[in-house]
Design goal:
Largest sheet: 3 strands, antiparallel
CATH topology of the domain at 19-104: TolA/TonB C-terminal domain
Structural class: alpha+beta
Strand order of the largest sheet: 2-1-3
Order of helices and strands: HHEEHE
Oligomer: single chain
Number of strands: 3
CATH architecture of the domain at 19-104: 2-Layer Sandwich
Length: 126
């Protein structure tokens, strides 16, 4: 008696080198918080849809849900830097449609430097 197996998909999806952990590291290294968003203290998630060509390069980006203040443009710039690994598909040139959520979170406030002052008081002699 044969076991029923799921058929393998003919078209395999592209993968980012290093998987999701590699993608997270890439985003955290290359994300530049827009100055206008920093000044306005804007946080949120930008949802970007993008298309990949058969080489794994991003060819089109579109902001699906944005938060403004320069974050949408930064998310598009960041997504356009991505390069995926695409498996060969027997000569077919396939365009893949993907989406990505990019979180903009304000950086933690650095603690003010701690200074210690030592005063020495020497009374004047008359």
């Amino acid at each position: 008696m044969k076991k029923n197996r799921k058929p393998e998909s003919f078209i395999r999806q592209p993968k980012f080198p290093g998987g999701t952990k590699g993608l997270d590291e890439f985003i955290s290294r290359n994300l530049k918080y827009p100055p206008l968003a920093l000044a306005s203290k804007v946080e949120g998630i930008v949802k970007v849809n993008f298309d990949l060509d058969f080489h794994g390069k991003v060819i089109r980006t579109k902001v699906n849900e944005g938060i403004g203040y320069g974050c949408d443009e930064e998310a598009q710039r960041l997504v356009s830097l991505l390069k995926f690994e695409v498996p060969k598909h027997k000569g077919l040139r396939i365009t893949f449609h993907k989406s990505l959520n990019i979180r903009f979170r304000l950086p933690d406030k650095p603690e003010p430097p701690k200074f210690t002052f030592t005063y020495e008081f020497i009374p004047r002699k008359k």
